[in-house]
Amino acid sequence: MTDNSLSIVLKNQSIIFDAILKIKSSLEDGRFNEGVIMAALSGQNKSKLINSHEFKVFSQWGEDGIIQYLVNSVEVKNKNFIEFGVEDFSEANCKFLLMKDNWSGFVIDGSEENINRLRQTNLYWKHQIDAIPAFITSENVNDVLMKSGFDSDIGILSIDIDGNDYHVLEAIKCVKPRILICEFNAVFGPTRRISIPYSPEFQRTKAHYSNLYFGASLSAITSLADSKGYSLVGINSSAVNAFFVRTDLLNENVTVVRIEDIFATSKFRESRGKDGGLTLLGGDERANLIKGMPVLNTETNMIEEF
Predict the structure, then answer these.
(1) Segment 60-85, tens digit of pLDDT
(2) Cα–Cα distance for residue pair 149/95, rounded to 1 Å
(3) Are 53 and 129 spatial neighbours (Cβ–Cβ below 8 Å)?
(4) Which ranges constitute the DSSP H helices of 76-190?
(5) Residue 196 lies in a domain
(6) pLDDT tens digit string along 258-283?
(7) I want to staple 239 with a disulfide (CB 3.0 to 4.6 A). Which of 42, 75, 106, 264 is the partner?
(8) Does the global pTM surpass 0.90?
(9) Structural domain contains residue 29
(10) Residue 218 is part of which domain span?
């Protein structure tokens, strides 16, 4: 490496680090590792395993780093995203993209109070982001998404509604994102293609006191994504979100993976007791808690017991 090229590298890294510090100053807790982010953004991490690129700035489980890897590895025509289930957007999958890379965004949450809080932040005038309150259902999802004004070829679609995720993804026709992120329920295991049965009024906290009965299995989500022209490229290490790339955009840096090779049992312990308090159950204890609850077999379209 010449002195000149080394100078350019150091200058670029300095600019990146500067941006990180500015973002950090806007956080209340500063929960991220500058060294990890520097390595990721400067391209030092050459692994093709997407969860090895995890880092957290605004995401809950390290999705910021995975998304950075994917958007720099996949050809993205339109730098925009749609994300729903964002609460007030203080913790979200695409917020780092908005702030670091100046993407345009359209976000949705079921709470008008959450959306109003977002609209009152500096983020709302500093960046091109629109937010609307809406309780997403299979019946209204396309009408809601079309309010974004985006072309159908969007950069990212991120789905996290703790409930009808499978059914809503199945209903979406109006957009064809390059990258798809969808939450799955690891408690449902790696093999059965199952989802909660569809109910437009479904609310996780009311469906079962444990708060563990929601969403769909990774196998069900992956099969549905495949039918829509998407390939599974990985999950995050916390086993919360699955990442898909439009199959025609796969390349040597982003390749399809098999569920059996990457599935992990989630380790976070969010189970609740009948009094609403945390019970901190883990592993199979969580599955036993919702055993016998009705689930939809997405292969046969029949209701079974979990």
Answers:
(1) 999 999 999 999 999 999 999 999 99
(2) 19
(3) no
(4) 95-101, 112-119, 123-126, 141-146, 165-171
(5) yes
(6) 999 999 889 889 999 999 999 999 98
(7) 264
(8) no
(9) no
(10) 48-305
